[in-house]
Design goal:
four-stranded antiparallel sheet; 105 residues; globular; alpha+beta
């Protein structure tokens, strides 16, 4: 953060976190039957970045990214077929918005 970085993302299987200033925001994805995580981090990061650019709201961007990752995991598809549809992502993001946990560092 001393170098000007505003947001740091961390994905670790079903746990996703975002560091902003001195606070960590965390979510746990409910999908327990993870069979293929290939590309999920890419989907998560690209969804976060696009949402931040459009909405300028890091908390919504975290939820939208988590919703994207959850939708991709629920699809049970592989490769590019894993990329989720916007409607499913928005439903998941709205659900996650009320579940965000945070702690100060």
């Amino acid at each position: 953060q001393k170098k000007g970085i505003e947001h740091v993302l961390l994905t670790n299987k079903v746990n996703v976190s975002l560091l902003v200033k001195n606070r960590v925001y965390s979510l746990k994805l409910p999908n327990k039957n993870i069979h293929d995580t290939t590309g999920i981090g890419d989907i998560f990061c690209s969804a976060f970045t696009c949402t931040m650019l459009k909405e300028k709201d890091f908390l919504w961007a975290l939820c939208f990214a988590a919703g994207s990752a959850q939708a991709a995991l629920e699809s049970n598809n592989v490769g590019l077929q894993k990329i989720p549809k916007k409607g499913m992502v928005e439903n998941n993001a709205s659900y996650f918005y009320n579940l965000v946990d945070f702690r100060d560092l």
